[in-house]
Amino acid sequence: MTRPTSTIGRLLALGSLLTLVGCQSAAPATKPAAAAEQFCAPLPDVIAHRGGTEKSMENTVGAFTAAGEAGVTLWELDVHFDVHGVPVVLHDDTVDRVSPMSGDISTLDVSKGIPTDDGQHIPTLDEVYRVAERFDAHVLTEIKVVPTEAQWAAVADDIDRTIGRPGVTLMSFDRSIVRTAEEEFPDTSTGLIHGAGYLSPEQIHQYGDVFSQSQTSISASRARQWHDGDVDVYAWTVDKEADWQRLSAWPVAGFITNKPIAYTEWAEKQC
Questions:
Q1: Fewer beta carbons within 10 angstroms: which end of the chain, N or C?
Q2: What are the φ and ψ backbone dihedral angles of 86, each rounded to 5 degrees?
Q3: 158 phi and psi, to 5 degrees?
Q4: pLDDT tier for residue 38 given thresholds of 50, 70 and 90
């Protein structure tokens, strides 16, 4: 299974991993021969934010299966740890927003089954990585809390017995987590997630291979500076067609979106 060694943007040649629009249209016969064919420029890649949430509840097996079945094979998910240190795919500290149960995930036992509001269950990281294996997906894995040594080992075990280290990018807002990930997983790509404000290419290169930036802090000039500094920027969370259009005009490598299926359909119509 081939996977990234530097930035996700350099995987465009893998085709099956990323959604790339490179469609071609023949010009009318009345056009000069030199203009007989026109090619569309590549659009930003699509990353399914917490899975295919257009079809299923976020961060569930159903959501990631929906993304894979739609041909979207670059996913983003969030990781917390249960009471026994088992890696769990969940965004919030508590299960309250997505489950009829309540409580901090760090006090609950995922092995007993934590239902979601749509009748599924909150999955372990191992479960989702096994779905990723089926679809040959690459998983941007956001670590939400600082893991203990044992919890890092549990993440490593989940990766190694499923999709393998090249199949994962370990990411976080917390720079100390990114640093530890680089040390503990030298054969896995890592990345920094950033919110408001600006980081220079030199600052970004200190923290792994991938850079994910809030779309509200991306401008044309910043996008060009990052591009010129050999940074592939992945914008989050980009859900509106107007934003797809605006950001596509700049050197942005990919969109992390809650609407991966809709974006794919929109992208196909741009040629």
A1: N
A2: -75, 130
A3: -60, -40
A4: low
Residues 184-204 have pLDDT tens digits of 999 999 999 999 999 999 999
**Which structural domain, as residue segments, surrounds residue 72?**
44-264
In a domain, 206, yes or no: yes
224 contact partners, CB below 8 Å, separation of at least 6: 250, 251
Using alpha carbons only, what angle is made at residue 170 by residues 132 and 119, rounded to the nearest 5 degrees?
45
Predicted TM-score of the model (pTM): 0.88
Question: Structural domain tally of the chain?
Answer: 1
37-39 vs 45-49, strand pairing mode: unpaired
Q: What is the pLDDT of residue 6?
A: 37
The closest of 64, 192, 52 to 126, measured between CA atoms, is 64
Q: Tell me, yes or no, whether 29 lies in a domain.
A: no
175 in Cβ contact with 207 (< 8 Å)? yes
- Domain containing 68 — which CATH number? 3.20.20.190
Q: Is residue 20 a part of any domain in this protein?
A: no
Statement: residue 26 has pLDDT above 80? no
